[in-house]
Each structure stands twice: as C-alpha cells, then as structure tokens.
Amino acid sequence: MSNEYLNKTEEQQFEDAKNWFKENGTPILLAIILICAASFGWNFWKNHQLQTAQQTSATYQNVMESYLQNPSKNQPLIEKFIADNKDSSYGTFAQLEAAKQAVEKGDFSAAKTLLQAALTNQDPTLQTIARFRLAQLDYQLKSYDDALATLAQVQDKVWELRKQILTGDILVAKGDIQAAKAAYEQAKAVASPQEQILIDVRLNNL
C-alpha cells in the first residue's frame, strides 16, 4: 500500500473506493452472478439427472415385474419402455430381457432384432453382453460365420474364456476341428483348474 493512500483521509479513501467500484464493480458483479448461475445450473442439472435416473429405475423395476409375470400379455408394456428409454442403459436392459424371452418362445427373428438394437448402447460392458448373446443365437441358428464374426468383436479380456469356448463349439459345428482345438487351448490357458477339466472333455471329444 502506498504512502499516498495512507495519507488520505477516511473520506477520501471511501470516495476512491466508490469510484473504483463504479468503474470495476459491474464486471465483477457480473462475474459473480455468472459463477453463481453456473454453480446453480450445474447443481440443478445434477439433481435433475439423479431424479430422472431414479424415476427410470423405478419404472424399469415395475415394468419388468409385470412383464415377467406374463411376457405375452405385457409385451406392449416393455416395447413402450424400450421406445421411451432407447438411449439409456435401462432401455438396453429391457432389450436384453425381451430378447431372452423371445428366444424361449422360439421367436429368433425378434430376439436378433432386439440384440442388434442393444448394440447401439455406448456402454462397453452392455455391448459385449449383447454381442455374446447374438453370437450364441447365431450359433443356435447355424449361422456359424455370423456368430464367429460377432465374437471377433468381443475384445474384453474378462470374456476371453467364454469367447474361446464358444468359438471352439462353433468351429466344431463347422467341422473345422484343428481351429476348434486351437480355440479350446486358448480357453484352457486362461481357465481355472476346474474349468480346464471341462475344456479337456471337449478336447478329448474332438
């Protein structure tokens, strides 16, 4: 602080402060307002997102409870939920469950459509689940090349064991025994001792 400022009277200091605020106060006040507004907006958005997620979760639970009690009767209920929540994970959960029910009814075309739609979800775990189930479905439908192509897109190492076992099963069905053996050996390399026993059964049956 300068000597000039110290030598000023209290009244002069007050006048200087008023003049400074007159020149600079509006931008500062505006900045404060903007910061507060941004903070309020962020908190409002977070609270809104939380409330929306909670509502969607509750709706999902109610829809699934009704749907699983009578899938045929309540099919329109789950279809509406999927349409209303197609961009959320809950919508994908519903698609996966509806696909499972479609397979149990033998409606493989509907199941495949639902699983392909589930692949649009950006969550890597949900994408992997959808791909694996789609590959299983194509295997059942004897669309072996489609199943192998879908499995090739499963990159998550957590799924490596299941991926290689299913790959081996598909290759056996295709009659490519050497490739099937290689897939089973890859599965065995990441399997537990108990799982290795089950894989050995497959290898011994080649």
Automatic annotation (TrEMBL):
<protein>
    <recommendedName>
        <fullName>Ancillary SecYEG translocon subunit</fullName>
    </recommendedName>
</protein>
<dbReference type="InterPro" id="IPR018704">
    <property type="entry name" value="SecYEG/CpoB_TPR"/>
</dbReference>
<comment type="similarity">
    <text>Belongs to the YfgM family.</text>
</comment>
<feature type="transmembrane region" description="Helical">
    <location>
        <begin position="28"/>
        <end position="45"/>
    </location>
</feature>
<keyword id="KW-0472">Membrane</keyword>
<keyword id="KW-0143">Chaperone</keyword>
<dbReference type="InterPro" id="IPR026039">
    <property type="entry name" value="YfgM"/>
</dbReference>
<keyword id="KW-1133">Transmembrane helix</keyword>
<feature type="domain" description="Ancillary SecYEG translocon subunit/Cell division coordinator CpoB TPR">
    <location>
        <begin position="18"/>
        <end position="206"/>
    </location>
</feature>
<dbReference type="InterPro" id="IPR011990">
    <property type="entry name" value="TPR-like_helical_dom_sf"/>
</dbReference>
<keyword id="KW-0812">Transmembrane</keyword>
<keyword id="KW-1003">Cell membrane</keyword>
<dbReference type="GO" id="GO:0005886">
    <property type="term" value="C:plasma membrane"/>
</dbReference>
<dbReference type="GO" id="GO:0044877">
    <property type="term" value="F:protein-containing complex binding"/>
</dbReference>
<dbReference type="Pfam" id="PF09976">
    <property type="entry name" value="TPR_21"/>
</dbReference>
